[in-house]
Amino acid sequence: MRWIVRIGITLVLAAVVLVAALLLLPGDRLARLAIEQIRKQTGREVTVAGEVKLSFWPVLGVETGPVTVANADWASAAPMLQAQGLAIGVAAPALLGGEVRITRILAQDPVLRLETAKGRVNWEFSPSGVTGGAAAPATSGAGGQLVTLDGLELKNARLIYVEEGKTSFDFGGVDLSASWPATDAPLKMAARLEPGAGPISVDLTLADLGAFSNEQVSAMQMTMAAPRTSITFDGRASIDGALAGTATLDTSDSSAMLAAFGQSGISLPRGLGQRADLKAQVTYTADGRLALRDLAADLDGNRLNGAADVTVADPPQVTARLTADALDLTGLGAASGGTGSGGGDTGSGWSETAIDASALALANGSLHLTARSIALPGLELGQSALGLSLDNSRAVVEMAPVSLFSGQLTGQLVANNRNGLSVGGDLRAEGVEMREALATLGGIERLSGAASGELKFLGVGQSEAQIMRSLSGEGRLAMGRGVISGFDLDNLMGRGAKGGGTTVFNSLTASYRMDKGNLFNEDLLMLLDNFKANGTGRVGLGARDIDYLFTPVALRANAGQGIAVPVRIVGPWADPAIRPDLSQVIEAATGLDKEAVETKAKDELRRKLGEELDTEITPDQDVEELIKDRLEQEATKGLLKLLGAD
């Protein structure tokens, strides 16, 4: 806004000078005089090329060819303003009454280069011979005349903005118009620009241009329209960029909106603002700090309230505290490529699709969220209090607590994408329903009951499958009364049947460690009314398989010593084989291991066979050859008897 006021003033002063000499001087002489006055008022070199055309009544007008206004001496060598043509009109009757009423300022194909460096701006002009002076106020012209503006037009303008020697934006095709018909009337501006993929139009009303141009606060209303988007502001503003008031944003397609502002290729997940309706009390300071209070947001049906503070930087620094009722964030799954048995899966069952974690670098800061429920991809959270901190592509989620699987979780989860993606956690659970947890996380539905425990884990990889195959960590589990479906321990121990059914237990405890995607347990203890059971084995978290030996003991059998019938669970999670391990039963009954049992059985077989053959059989003899020889001998004897031989 400042550059419009300052440049407009210099052009007005030129017009006044032209009026003074209008009837006496030819066009080229008049142009040179105007240029000299502009140079004095701005301290900048000004050049005008081409023919100068004049008009006299009722509009005192000047039209020129190409015009150039030099840059500040500390800025770049490129001109601050260039235009292919310039036209200025002043109302002649008003001028006779001592009022400078500009009816028209038109710049054709202008290129405006705005630069800032070390607190200086190139649109501040210092008149020649005045040290540290500022331009004349917007409400006065030469000699103190009142200055007003009926119309300012920039056609097909190119805007360049440079901060500390680096170009922040550079786009063309800008059309701008402004009107300030009276000193006590508001300034009205309208602009159309296209910095990205789609046009943006802006309508702005400034209540007090005089106060605004003199670095005071003025009421301001603004309406901005972008593709499928409307943005409004109603409040106060100052020329240094600070403002305060009520702002709204309503978009039915945030991707199209961002593309129109030059941020193409960004697609927010459903639930985070593909469609958005926001309203807040906004305060923005000249140093780039944005405060949002009384924030009310509707993001794809997710309603949030609260407050936020944003520091404009690269990346932005965000601090927010929000509350919500029910949040639906299931759309996050589509953004990350999905999980489960999608198109990128392999036989492991985990997705091999690469996880895009680039969103961790979009901002730094912290967020505190409380919600009645949160629906995530494949996961339902109940009443939850969550804290999220982001720092240089590393996110930490604090749960304090989170309702999950009918229980509660506390602790933290970490996702780090600084040098490749890694995920980890340190969690504590109370009252978690195991059937819900295992069915959701691993497709296992055989174990049910409330559990408590602890878990520390770390996984590294660029896909779900890589992470699951790399898991390491440790934990413990404790359950009260629960059920295992798929086999009936009473049936198995009483009649040896290995069919279906259920086993109800009174308690279960276990500790475990994880390494390279495998979970190892050696101390499972399950207590039932008539049995106890121990367990040891491996659960393949990456391969989604299991090899586990479950050993129930009948406490009231064998004179109170118990009878053990081990059960081996082997195979994929989806359909493991569950069968008694008879080798374990034999070992328990004989006190011998499997190899010793086999050796003893072979010795007994040789003894029995030796008795039948009436010979001693040693371990190194071939039993098959002995039987063959004995059959030949018996056949020979039978043949001799048949022939009547002795």
UniProtKB/TrEMBL annotation:
Q: Name one GO cellular component term.
A: plasma membrane
**Protein name from the UniProt record:** AsmA family protein
Can you supply a Gene Ontology BP term from the record?
Answer: regulation of protein targeting to membrane
Pfam families assigned: AsmA
Transmembrane annotation, as ranges: none
Highest taxon of the source?
Bacteria
What the entry lists under InterPro entries is as follows: AsmA, AsmA-related
* All residue ranges annotated as the AsmA domain in the record: 8-166, 214-523
Phylogenetic placement of the source organism: Bacteria, Pseudomonadati, Pseudomonadota, Alphaproteobacteria, Rhodobacterales
